[in-house]
Design a protein that fits this description.
Blueprint (H helix, E strand, L loop, with lengths): L1 E7 L4 E8 L4 H15 L6 E4 L3 H4 L1 H9 L3 E4 L9 H15 L8 H16 L13 H12 L1
Parallel strand pairs: 3-4
Antiparallel strand pairs: 1-2
Length: 147
Amino acid sequence: MYLASVMDLCTREIVGWRLYDHMKTSLVLDALEAANHAKAPAKGLIHHSDRGSQYASEDYRKRLKEYKMVASMSRKGNCYDNACMESFHSILKKELIYCNPRFKTKQQAYDAIYRYIEFFYNRKRIHSAIGYLPPVRFAARLLDQAI
């Protein structure tokens, strides 16, 4: 199974994700679509990704233009450019994947990852970079301050 995730770097919230049994471009396109649908960001949002072929594909670049997002990619061979996503995937593995026996079905894996991202990571797990708050609570505070 392959996980594609889209993170809001300001709030550290995972705003879009998909888990498929393949690494085709549709995996990352669908994660991007989920993020765009969930947050409807303003024109000019900078969308940063690694240099994977799916993210560099014509279809993905075209979708970014449709959403009026500015494409940004990590430098070749520099994992630090995408450190926040690398960190998220490392944390997910440590806190969920490595702590559980092998999933018996794809649905079981999907359900566990869904619960982890949507109910734990976004709503309960605190982050030092955002004042030791969970992403959803930090985002709500930002919204309150803007109003």
